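User: Structure tokens for this complex, please. No commentary.
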Amino acid sequence: MIQIEKVNKWYGSYHALVDVTESVAKGEVVVVCGPSGSGKSTLIRTLNRLEPIQSGRIVIDGVDAHGPRVKLNAFRSHIGFVFQQFNLFPHITVLENCTLAPTRLRGLKPSEARDEALALLDRVGLAAKARAYPGELSGGQQQRVAIARALAMRPPLMLFDEPTSALDPEMVGEVLLVMRDLARDGMTMVCVTHEMGFARDVADRVLFMDEGKVLERAAPGEFFARPEHPRLQQFLSDIRTPFPQAA
Amino acid sequence: MIELIDTYWLYFLVGQYPHGPLGGLALTLILAVLGLLFAFPLGLVFGIARVSPWRSVRWPVSTLIQVVRGTPLLMVVFWAYFFLPSLTGQNTNQFWTMLTALVVFDAAYLAEIIRAGIQGIGKGQTESARSLGFSYLDAMRLVILPQVVRNMLPSLVNQFVATIKETSLGYIIGLTEVSFIATQTNTQVLTKPAEVYLLLGLTYFILCFGLSRFAFWLERHLQQRTMAKAHA
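Assistant:
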């Protein structure tokens, strides 16, 4: 479904992505982790071309994402994207957030869009909040609406860019549960996340990135039990012991 | 003072109307309303152009705005009065001249209000709209601008206040707005300049102060609404 071939990206002289080559199969759930500044968010943002790349190729469902002939808006509408900061539209209701794109871009009648949106909101457990404004919801609720909004375009692929990093700890679980259910329904997903529990339970494959390179890729069992790269070993031990060890 | 008001109030409000052209306070308000009404869409387009990702759109508009903002309104009025007819080959009356000047001038200021408003909305809003598949212009129209206009409502009212005061410069080109009428009145009465101009000043003040308070109330009201939302 996704082929990433020798992708390079620079911010000025900073080499953010270095020869990244990867592929994601249909129905696969891939978790990308790594220390901050490792390029994982950059990578996921290049997939729907929120960020340009300088060389290489990214092909999604046969479409060259960074090619000159891609119909960008149609291309993006087939990829759900969930942001760290939710980015719901604050001036319209939760329901309208979920019907805006389907009515405008999928050509649904308002009543159809409404029914679909309510079904999706029900799926993320928020049908009762349909008439609320985003500002009236908790962070966890907002993120679940953001997932419903993305799903409303019926994308075959969902991208998550640190979906739980901006949440209070007690709200992380509700978002991860929605994501897990989505994965179990067979959605192809790429998730940048620090939630190692999610990676272990839900991912088919885990990638570890550092300094713009994918250093390790493995099934979660292997990944956590037998990390090969020293940077990954360090990373895993760092996140297991969040306090610096006394000397 | 009472006698002055008693004699001249109608003249002050509408000028020589219905026996001559409409003037006075009515003309001032019509000018201000029309000025802002026409300037708003233009300011909107200019404001969007100011933050356009395309340089060829951004530059000419930015230049125009900087030139207008770096010039007193009186200058713009003179240009409209003396220069525009030689360009179009048609003599325009004072009303349209003043309106043109006001629209150009206000559009430049509104554009800056709109630009600030657009830039005040996080880029996450554009990104999430684009990632759903909306075009740049649709993202602007459906997601960014509705928020900008709501946030900028108090600034727009303040710009209207400024516009009301700006119409007084129509006096220079013989437009019979309320300042001109007051001067005419003063010439007729001769003995009461302080009273005449006090009344004129009071009129402007009541209008502008009232509107400023309204803008302030609007600002607090909108703020409270978003605060209530954020803490709900």
